[in-house]
Write the structure tokens for this entry.
Amino acid sequence: MAATSSPDVVTSTYDRVKDIKEFDQSKNGVKGLVDSGISSIPKIFVQPPETLSTLNPPSQTNASNIPAIDLENITSQAQRPKLVQQIKEAASEWGFFQVINHGIPVSVLEETIQAVKSFHEQPQEIKAKYYSREEESAVLYSSNNDLYRAKAATWHDYLQVWMSPEEQSAKVEDIPEILRQQSLTWDSFAKKVAEDVMELLCEGIGLESSKFKDMTVSGARLFVGVYYPYCPQPDLTLGLTPHTDLGTLTVLLPNQVSGLQVKHGEEWVDVKPLPGALIINIADMLQIISNGEYNSVQHRVRANSCKEPRIAVVEFLNFSKWEESGYGPLPELLSTKKPALYCQLTEADFLDNLKSKGLESKSLVDKVKLY
């Protein structure tokens, strides 16, 4: 596979499709490239000039951080209104926030991160049996789910396991043994945290606290363990391209290797993970049903310049039961002064958007915006 030392190096013999297929069919992922001892990245990973121009050195990025919210007093009637307001402001102004005292034991956090790391650091022949491009697979190991659709590949590998709904979820025995128990335990805890946060989000816009849960916004859950290995040329690529999440809510558990950036205004802000914290972000469908009260914002991951891999344990949540007419802004939130900002989106529309484009161009919000 061709490698390059500069984004300007282009030869008439370069066959991008051939290189993509060669990378994909190797089933080695990005970690396999690193293990082979490469000193420059293959051309398929080099980002276009318009992306490279935004990759400021970390020291030159915005010094602010996403809000951090303490959930310790979530059951306190006296403290809950303050907590609701904090969550509402964070979800509206940033679309991202960290939560501490969320109820998940530190041992569970550490064991889950280690299990994901251990999976990706197994011998390639063990991981290869899970390698696939079938995105609906109950268990799937791969690299770049939009490899054949994106403008450029990014520097990460991932394992995904469908946890819910039952008809889509992986059989327990099919989950790789090296992280089987940890992924199941994480799913149980992450679901509880997500539903606690969704209650606060409901109350923040005047809905019954159970409204989102009753709509099954946490009914479909996808566990993803992402591995960002060391990159020899982090100034030429990304760990993950700028995008918004498609579902309702995302719960993220990172290790302490930095890389996540959130778009705030016109700036990319480095997210500094607090020890033991979870990072939560609003996804597209929640922005739509809240009629823009909460915002799904672009985020990306910088290519990892550290020898230590960046690990991200992610729980993506979405509707498990779709109304035949689809979902749009909730009627309870609409008035003559606050008309609907988005049209209805059906499950078919959602899936078509998911499969038809590269990750960087999938925003559902733009697709259904009325104004």
Observations:
- The longest strand covers residues 220-228.
- Confidence is low (pLDDT under 50) at residues 5-11.
- Residues 180-204 form the longest helix (25 residues).
